Amino acid sequence: MNLGHFAVIDTETTGLFPGNHDRIAEIAVITMDRSGTVLDRWETLINPERDLGKQSIHGIRAKDILSAPRFMDIASELEWRLSGTIVVGHNLGFDARFLDAEFRRAGLTLPEFYLPRGLCTMQMAHEYLPGAGRSLQDCCDSFSIELRHAHSAGDDAEATAVLLARYMELDPDLGDWDFLLNEAAQTMWVPNPPRQLLEPTHRSTSDSKEVHFVDRVVDRLPEISGPTEHQEYLALLDRALLDRQLSAHEQSALIALADELQISRPTVIELHSRYFSSVAATAWNDGLLTIRELEDLETIAHLLRIPPAQLEVASRTKPRRSAVDSVVAASPRTVLKPGDLIVLTGDMTQPRSTIETALESSGYIPHSAVTKKVKLLVAADPDSLSGKARKARAYGIPVVGEDFLWNQILNISP
Length: 414
Hints:
It contains 16 helices and nine strands. It is an alpha/beta fold. The chain folds into three domains: 5-186, Nucleotidyltransferase, domain 5, CATH 3.30.420; 213-323, no CATH class; 341-410, Rossmann fold, CATH 3.40.50.10190. Strands 3-2-1-4-5 form a five-stranded mixed beta sheet. The chain has a four-stranded parallel beta sheet with strand order 7-6-8-9, sandwiched between helices. Helix 6 (136-143) packs across helix 7. It is elongated and about 85 Å long. The chain starts with a strand and ends with a helix.
């Protein structure tokens, strides 16, 4: 008997409604045979072309998906991986609805028989785990199956594959297993892989070493730039550091501007040093350096890779003001004042209405859309890909994170 394989899938999504505007942000496919042997594990982040929704659930960061493929980019490969298989999922109906919506959006459709004939390990728990909970964690606990990182598509799919294998061990003589796999083999509709398989994009881990953005600045010789170009770079740097973070978008913008203005890496390092000295001089302006100001200097030093010795000197000695007066003089800093328009985007830790009320109480005007009159965009993730965030960047409006909203704008604890 010619048997196909099981394709155990899991998706992480931006929300619950594929027919509305929610999208898949991560997908995994575990290919498994009748014996329960895992033949392949394939997973990738997907750029959903919108904000990521409740990141506290799936843990995907916007900066991780900036270089990830779109669903349309992996649709043909995914179709090939699913062809000739029986699709399996824990709460398969949820994943199936998103798959169907994404394939249709990409201009493709899975065969009508494919998703309906799939197996749902959550529904099968009624038979094999009576009385147990229905969540993936509950089912895995019943068999002591390790679920390493819940709401990670790859680990959830792998745990679901082991769960299916345990079901088959409990009912090895059930003819449905072989019947379904034989049917899958007979109905393979994409026998060959696409010409080019894209490199999957995976989540970054705490162990992964990121290249500092300064090291990604082109080092050219000779340099064709001058004071005007330097001031332009410093102006962008000042705007990017408004919330004392450098998002992936902001790092890319700084790299691109340095390249456009033909500023070399050594000059960028020197400009960062001058900028740091300017901030230190401002902090020392009243003759004292508070704990909060020292923490601010430490944050900037870390972000700009300021040498520890320079940070040490700045934390102990007031810099000479004359040496740094002109650093950001050409470009005034973003200063918020009562009546300014502020736009919010993404799912934050507090309800949108609560945040808007707090902004209004502080004299600001919450605004629903990004226009050139907006002063600031507050995003749940500063690297948000929402339409609001894209438009704010296009207009040169600072995009800051939620911490900046509470700690700097409202000065209250969330």
